[in-house]
Structures are given as structure tokens and as C-alpha cells.
Amino acid sequence: MSKKLKAAIIGPGNIGTDLLMKMFRSEWIEPAWMVGIDPESDGLKRAREMGIKTTAEGVDGLLPHVIEDDIRVAFDATSAYVHAENSRKLNELGVIMIDLTPAAIGPFCVPPVNLKQHAKELEMNVNMVTCGGQATIPMVAAVSQVQDVAYGEIIATVSSRSAGPGTRKNIDEFTRTTAGAVEKVGGADKGKAIIIINPAEPPLIMRDTVHCLTKEAPNQQAITESVHAMIKQVQKYVPGYRLVNGPVFDGNRVSIFLEVEGLGDYLPKYSGNLDIMTAAGLRTAEMFAEEAHNGSITLPARG
Amino acid sequence: MNLKDKKVVLHDMSLRDGMHAKRHQISLEQMVDVATGLDEAGMPLIEVTHGDGLGGASVNYGFPAHSDEEYLGAVIPKMKNAKVSALLLPGIGTVDHLRMAKDLGVNTIRVATHCTEADVSEQHIGLAAKLEMDTVGFLMMAHMATPEKIVEQAKLMEAYGANCIYCTDSAGYMLPDEVSEKIGLLRAELNPKTDIGFHGHHNMGMAIANSLAAVDAGAVRIDGSVAGLGAGAGNTPLEVFVAVLDRMGADHGIDLYKIMDVAEDRVVPLMDQPIRVDRDALTLGYAGVYSSFLLFAKRAEAKYGIQARDILVELGRRGTVGGQEDMIEDLALSMAKERAKEKGLS
Q: CA B83, CA B216: separation in Å to the nearest integer?
């Protein structure tokens, strides 16, 4: 029996296609289905050309094949509005749901911070926060692992070309969801998130700034070591995740300046914001597969 | 230029844009003092919030002396005739802030986006219009896009529900011809019922000239700031602009001597530094950089030894937009590293 878990991707847009390309390289996850709603969509055509089964009937078109094709994990790259229903239907059939929408009905997952715990507890729905959250929360956690953080603030700057219609239409979701996760996952008592969209040409690579206010004077050496160690953790799944400057210390303020360059699989390299979402989502599924393979979790039984 | 009997609605920025120049440290008492003076002088609209709008309180932009709620709650009940507006930048503030402002009695919401990114404002403009507020779409850094692009973006905001659209010269970069062209095209292309506004900065010394060009081309609302208190070299100094409009016979509704007195007796004394076209403010205008970067660049110069002018020019070259204050310290650190490396090699 293969150690790989079979997966379905819901939503054949930019994110879904980029995810599919990354999945072909995975040692742990095997792409099986691409789910869309428009048979003529470029995304479904691309998936068919790459040899993946497709349906244009939405999640309902996938359900009859879940057991026979042994689909174990699904990635939802559609919208917050339909996610809950997609998740309910697939969870019922024992499919683990990785939520790339802002729906956040399951716990937030930021791989180097809390993925292991979610995998061990076999969470059937995990939410990947936001691009800005994936890029910055590891740094907030790197500081809060050393000492108490009273306030964590992140500023994500993305190129205009990489900010899709979903993000634009509902930009408050970004600020709320990210700020919430800076607290819940990052470990700051209070979180704040800011997003800036920049139209410069050529498009700028995603930039992220993290400011933490520590309760006591910051332990500079320990924080610097923790930040560098965390950078290496993120680089395992996003090689273009780089520390540009910092950590800089100014009183109780700790500031970290980051750049996130994507792999350029389907999305251009400047779209580090989208790349870090797909990479983190895939990394999450891989961790479930690894844990299942080494027997530390048992996937839902199937006849 | 003939502005005789032209209607001009002035909008004071000293208690919002002026917050940049005061590092957001204006006291409640000072706010009320300036606002009541403006009210008595006949100012129809006064903006009150953190310099970066509702929700701007942050490490990135600076923590204010008081919250938006406290400022609005202190000023609004004291107004006899003036209405109060609040600025909101999607990506920084949310619809929760908007509802709070409405509940406190804010009359006008100004939803600000970069001039090419109007589609992030749909939620906020939509809600403000639904709440029957005076709803303004505020296209910032308007020198960075063509007149046609500005019109396209303005139409989006208009479609979301804005009843007034601003062409905003956040960098104080524009010269009068550009203002005439952009305001003129907006006036020609938007719904005749939609008001057009202009917001200037004085970084190239053009704020009065640009505001006149805007009125001449069809703008009705003009932003300015009593004594010019605002980011960069400040906004269009309102007492000066009122005197000019007076001489031209325009219909502005302000008591000139009273606004002169507010400027001299209430605003100038609270300035931390003279608001003038100094070397760095001029660089903002010349290089087309967001005016509120000024004090951040000066602080970075003091801390990292890189001249503010060099930092600002490079930020302009990179196409930095409003809100990217974090890039100032980042760039100063990178430039300092680069210089240290060069020294090591030589």
C-alpha cells in the first residue's frame, strides 16, 4: 500500500492550480481530483491536461467517488461562503479538510507553530488563516516562545497583481482573521493586522513586517536565535522566505522585516503571498500523511 | 481665472492630517479648542481621527494620545454648525470602526484607497451609503495614475455608493495643469450629482494654486488645514485660501478674520515644528512620496545616519504607496548595511 494520501482540490483557480503543481512533487500527497463548477474553465482544462480527474458539478460531483478513489484529504480554495457546506459533506465521508478560505470554522493552522498538535489530534478541518498570517505568525510565535508579548502587529504588503477579487471584495476578513490568529497562534495578548496593496511595476515581492511589544525588556540574544531558527522552519516549505532586516530592538519593541518570494510554480515568483498559502496547505496535509503512516494517528475507518 | 460666486465647500484637515505632524499627540483639549474655533469661523466640515484614519493606532503609524472614540466623542457634541468627518483606509480600518464613527455622530465617511485600488472599498463605501452617511471616495496618490485610470477607479467608488469623489495629491507632487486635467475629466465623466473634491499638500509650494485650479475645473469640496497643519509641508493653508477666494469673489462662507485667528492663536502654538517646505518636505513633493513619511524618514536619519532625502528618493523610485511606513526603517537599515559594506571594502 502506498504511503501517499489521495487528495482533491476544490476550486481550480490560481491557488488550486498552483497547489496541484506543488502536489505532483510531494512524497506524501497524491492529487486525484480537481473540483470546479464550470466545465469550460481554464482551471479544469489544465487539470485534465495534467491527468487529473475533474468534475464541474461542485463538491456534489466528487462525493460519489470519495470512497472508491480513497480520497483522504481535500483542499478548499473556493470562498468562505460555500466552505462550511463543502466541509460538512466531505468530513462525513472521513475526508480531512484543509481550508484555504477565510471561513475559519476549524482551528487556525500555521505549520511550524501548531501543525504537529493539530495532526496528533486528527483535526478534521484546519484553516490556513491568510497569506499575511502564514508569513508573519511564525515570527510572532518565535518571539512569544522566548517571552510574553503584550502586542503583536503585522503589516503585509502584496503586489496589486497578486491580490485577487476575493481578497479585495472582503478586505476586512483579512485584517480580522489575521489579527485573531496573531493572538491565538502567535501568542500575543493583542493582535493587529494591516494589509497594503501596491501596484508598482514590475510587481514587488511580498513584504511583511512584524512588530512585537514585549512585556519585559526583550532578551535580545534569545529572540534573535529564536527568529533565525523559525526562519529555517518556514524555509523548509517556502524556500524564498527571507529575513531582510532585524530583529531590531528599540525599548520593548522587536521589529522583523521579511520578504516572501514564491517558487513560481503556477503563480509568478512575486506572489509569495499566494505561494506561502499553497505551500503551507500542502505541508499541513503532508504532516497528516506522515503521522498516519508512522501510526501516531488513525485515519477514519473505511470499509 | 474667474471664480466669482463659485460655491466652494471647505473641509479642515488640521485635526486629522495635522495628527501626522503632531505624531498623533494632539490632546482632547487642543482638539476641542481648534474645532470650536473653526466652527465659529463657519467651517462646514472638520475631519477628526488618527492621521491614518480610523483604526490607525499602531506601531507602524504611531499610537495616538487618545483613541478615535475619545477624540470624536469630545469634539462632536461641541459643534454648533460644523459637521465632523472621519477617514477610513480599507486594510487598516474596518466596517466595525465605521459603525462606531456613525454611532458617535460622524456625518461624513471618507474611504481612502490608493488611486488604482478602489475595489478594496466596496464593503466600506457600501455600508456608509446604506447608513445614509455623506460618503466620499478618496483616491490617494493620484499623481501615480493617468486621468483615465482615475476616472475608471472613481466610477467604481461611485457605483459602490459614494456621493463625492476626491482626487488626492497625497505627495504634493502635482502641478496645476495636472490638477485641471484630472478634475476636469472627473467632472465630465462622473454623474453630475456626484461632487468632486481636491486634497492638496504644499510640498512643492503649489497647494493654493492647485486648489484654485481644482475649483476652476469643477471641484466643489476643497481640503485644507488651518495654518497648514498637516503631513509633509502641510495641507492647503485654509486661512490663506479663504483670503484668496475672498479676493476672487468665490462663495466660501468662512469668516476670514476668525479663521486667521484660529490659525495664529490656536494652531500655531501647538505645532512641534514649523510646517514649511523644508529640504525633506520638498523631496516628498519632488519625488512623489506619501507626505506622512516625512517624520519617519527624519527619525530614520537620526537613528541610522542615512540622509532622509536619500531614503525618500529611493522610496519614490520603488513606487511606495500610502501606508508603507514600515519600509522606511527597513530601507534605512538596508542602506546602512550597504554603506558599511562599501566602507569595509575600501
A: 25
Mean pLDDT of B121-137: 98
Q: Are A131 and A206 within 8 A, CB to CB?
A: yes
Cell 489521495 belongs to which residue?
A: A6
pLDDT > 70 fraction of chain B, expressed in percent and rounded: 100
pLDDT band at B346 (very low <50, low <70, confident <90, very high): low
Per-residue pLDDT of B43-67, as tens digits, reads 999 999 999 999 999 999 999 999 9
Instruction: Please write down the HEC assignment for all residues of A15-83.
Output: HHHHHHHHHCCCCCEEEEEEECCCCCCHHHHHHHHCCCEEECCCHHHHHHHCCCCCEEEEEECCCHHHH
User: Nearest CA of chain B to the CA of A171: how many Å?
Assistant: 6
**pLDDT band for position B303 (50/70/90)?**
very high
- If we measure between CA atoms, which residue out of A68, A70, A63 comes closest to residue A6? A70
Mean pLDDT of A242-263: 97
Residues in A closer than 8 angstroms to B60, CB to CB, are 153, 155, 194, 209, 211
How far apart CA A247 and CA B27 sit, in angstroms, is 33
Which stretches of A185-255 are DSSP H helices?
220-235
Q: What is the CA radius of gyration of chain B?
A: 19
- State the nearest Cα–Cα gap between B330 and chain A, in angstroms: 6
Question: Cα distance from A288 to chain B (closest Cα, Å)?
Answer: 34
Return the CATH number of the domain spanning residue range A5-128+278-293: 3.40.50.720
ipTM of the complex: 0.96
Q: Structural domains in chain B?
A: 9-270 (3.20.20.70), 279-345 (1.10.8.60)
φ and ψ of B85, to 5 deg:
-115, 160
B252 is an active site residue: no
DSSP state of A301: P
Distance of CA B94 to the CA centre of its chain: 19
B126 and chain A in contact, CB less than 8 A: no
CATH code, A131-270: 3.30.360.10
Closest residue of chain B to A259, computed from CA coordinates: B330
The residue type at A60:
D
- Cβ of A196 and B91 within 8 Å? yes
The whole-number pLDDT of residue A302 equals 82
CA atoms of B199 and B167, how far apart (whole Å):
7
Q: Report the alpha-carbon angle B200-B132-B81, nearest 5.
A: 60
pTM: 0.96
Q: What are residue B134's DSSP bridge partners? A: B108
Mean pLDDT, range B225-244, rounded to an integer? 98
Determine whether the interchain pair B324/A257 forms a contact, defined as Cβ–Cβ distance below 8 Å: no
* Residues in a beta bridge with B340: none
pLDDT of A32-72, one tens digit each? 999 999 999 999 999 999 999 999 999 999 999 999 999 99
| Torsion sign over Cα B228, B229, B230, B231 | positive
Region at B249 (left for phi over 0; alpha for psi -120 to 50; beta for the rest): left
